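hey so i finally got around to running the thing on that chain from the lab meeting. sorry it took forever, my laptop kept dying and i had to restart like 3 times. anyway pasting the input first so we r on the same page abt which one it is
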Amino acid sequence: MNQKLVSVLIPTYNVEKFIDQAIYSIINQTYKNLEIIIVDDSSKDSTYQKLEKLQKKDKRIRLFKNEKNLKICKTLNRAFNYSRGQYIVRMDGDDICELDRIEKQVKYLEENKEIHLVGMSVKGIDEENREISKNKYCKNFNILKQMLKYGTPVLHIWAARREVYENLHGYREIPYVEDYDFLLRMLTSGYKFTNLEDYYGYSVRFREGNTVTSNGIEQIKAFEYAKKLYLERINNKVNEDSFSEEKFYKYINTNKMEKLKYDKSLIFFKKYLLQKNTKKITGLIFLIQSLLTSKYQAKKILNRARFKFYAKYF
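ok and heres what got predicted. didnt touch it at all, straight out
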């Protein structure tokens, strides 16, 4: 009876095959005081038509559509601007979450006032909902701060206090790593985050074309750019940096030679993955070739190794 209002932000784009499952996993949550804000980013398939039908079944759904494709950052900020909840929860239109997911996240924030955002451990699923992986995410804030140097230690499917979004002014136009940049800005603003380490309450879908499987050179450069801004704030001891959309897109601009080298390094890395358990020497040779072929691939592999090291040993 005294549940605080939670705003669930759901950006959608061309997810007609998965949208019903995603939305029903929110509609049927054990936590009932929700407003479900869905902004469709001008889908070209039947996603929006399916959402219109779902809206008729649940009055908590507030449905909007971008007149043109604005991409993830602007779409999320539009969804937030419509929101009224004391807590903000993220959900993707092709994923699935457990029915007590929001209840658990909100309960944690209610009981731990010093924490401002909470994620969770996750499962990976394929297009047919088959489980293909499980990833545990650490709860220790001090360890998470160290991991943040090398990757994103809290996935975007978090629950956060509204004040965090208001004070950070939502997401910045840093596509590919908008969530990473959000966490870095939280850190320099004095906010704390954690994970429900032993709760696998969310299933991230791996499919061709979504952001989970799109790990190109631009994403690596975007990661570097967000980290560069973070170091600026730390070194200057102010909570401001030199971000601009123009500077960002100039930073991630990739020439043909860089892309060719990166694509070639990916081929070597895939060969390494195929050989590493059966022909270790051959696999190691492919790994070295991958590292030497593209400096961006080398940075990505080394950051991933450091991230996993912290996750495993600390």
